[in-house]
Amino acid sequence: MSNTVSSGPVGSRPYLLLATTMLLWGSGFSSSKVIVDHLPHSVVATLRFGGGALALLVALKLSRQAGGRQRTSPRDWMRAAGAGVLGVFVYNLFFFWGLSLAPAIDGSTIVPVMSPVLTTTFLLIAGQEKASAARVAGLATGAAGAVIFFVGSGGEAGAGQGRLVGDLLFLLSACCWAAFTLSGRRVLAGIDPLKATTYATLSGSILLAIYSAPSAVEVAWQDVPAYVWLNVVFVALGPTAVANLLYYRGIGAVGPASASIMMFVVPVVGTACSAVFLGESFGTVQAAGAAVLLVGAVLAVTQGRLPARRRAATPEPAPTSRGTEDA
């Protein structure tokens, strides 16, 4: 599988690509919240990823004209499409449903922090990562932080149970994204990252469009403000088309475990955007839970140190003996 690792200039800067991805994703939470406040959550998911799919199809067409065609086997296409069902369709049903019930600041903490925790947990269970004391302690700390966070969201004054339900939906979307991340290496086994991202986004978007059609018919489209459409364009191009492509390239270069470490940039960006643009904030209990969760997650994924995975950022192929190769 080492042949699937991105080569050339992309292989020399995977963490720069992943950092750009996290900045785009972090800003996408507050921007998506603006749209959800005016349109049904299923319609918003369709607009975001349908627009992203169109942008990726254009990029794929241009790449074919520049570099010629490369045949894709039906098995490779099905793998990418299957990843789209999980990472685009199911993930976004949970995510945007949760966003319609809970603040964007909750999603920007739960999804990017729990995703690498869940990814690491699966790798440990599958025996593809070592269960060191630091990792076990980190997972336990993260679990405690998650409990505190959810207790805080349920007890938030004036929030009722809506915020708690929304946060639980965010947790389900994090489960989907962890599975999507783990499937990345296998999906990229015989297909270019641009093709894989395009097929995955397209297949998920088609399912989203079918699911959201009844809600879309009831929308008064003429009353949607212009700034909402500006946010639709931004999330479709930036946090969706560009970010997902860069994320797949990052996974192809360094593997899902190392790529998931970069997810810890997202809560910082997402929290800042939610506070500045939406005026959102955490309650005291939620803030404490978020801090404990983040500390536990970082400890679980990094084992208290930066692993020697930086070697994967060089143009040399990644060793095939790494546990994450078969994820």
TrEMBL record:
SUPFAM superfamilies found in the cross-reference section: Multidrug resistance efflux transporter EmrE
Listed PANTHER family: EAMA DOMAIN-CONTAINING PROTEIN (PTHR32322:SF2), INNER MEMBRANE TRANSPORTER (PTHR32322)
Main subcellular location: membrane
Record membrane topology: Multi-pass membrane protein
Keyword tags: Membrane, Transmembrane, Transmembrane helix
Protein's recorded name: DMT family transporter
Residue ranges occupied by any EamA domain in the UniProt entry: 15-150, 165-301
Subcellular location: Membrane
Keyword Oxidoreductase: no
Originating species: Nonomuraea helvata
Family recorded in the similarity comment: Belongs to the EamA transporter family.
InterPro entries on file: AA-Vitamin_Transporters, EamA_dom, EmrE-like
